Amino acid sequence: METKKLVATIRQFNAWRRDDEDSEQTDPQEIGEALDLLCDRVEAYEAVMQAAYVLIKAKGRHNTALTYQGLADALTTQKP
Q1: Number of domains forming the structure of the chain
Q2: Within 13 Å and on the Cβ side, how many CA atoms surround 50?
Q3: Exposed, middle or buried by CB within 10 Å (0-12, 13-18, 19+), for 34?
Q4: pTM surpassing 0.90?
């Protein structure tokens, strides 16, 4: 699911949950999948941010290749 669709699905569900008269109930399976995907993306984002932080802190040190590898690993494990 693309990010725009993911966000739209969650926003529509939240509007319905708050009794927005113009919103219809989101399919429970679709909202479940969207929430699972959102959780996966937040976890991936946190991994990338942590790796980037380690890289910034290691700037100028001899283990820079290892910190770049950590960032690369975090980026490649992200689910698109």
Answers
A1: 1
A2: 9
A3: buried
A4: no
What is the rounded average pLDDT of the residues 38-57? Answer: 84
Dist. CA 41–CA 16, nearest whole Å = 23
Identify the domain containing residue 63 by its residue range.
3-76
Instruction: Give the helix ranges, DSSP H, for 1-80.
Output: 3-17, 28-57, 64-76
Token pair in block for residue 8: 């739209």
Answer whether 49's CB lies under 8 Å from 43's CB: no
7-30 confidence digits (pLDDT tens): 999 999 999 999 888 888 889 999
Q: How far is Cα 11 from Cα 2, in angstroms, rounded to an integer?
A: 14
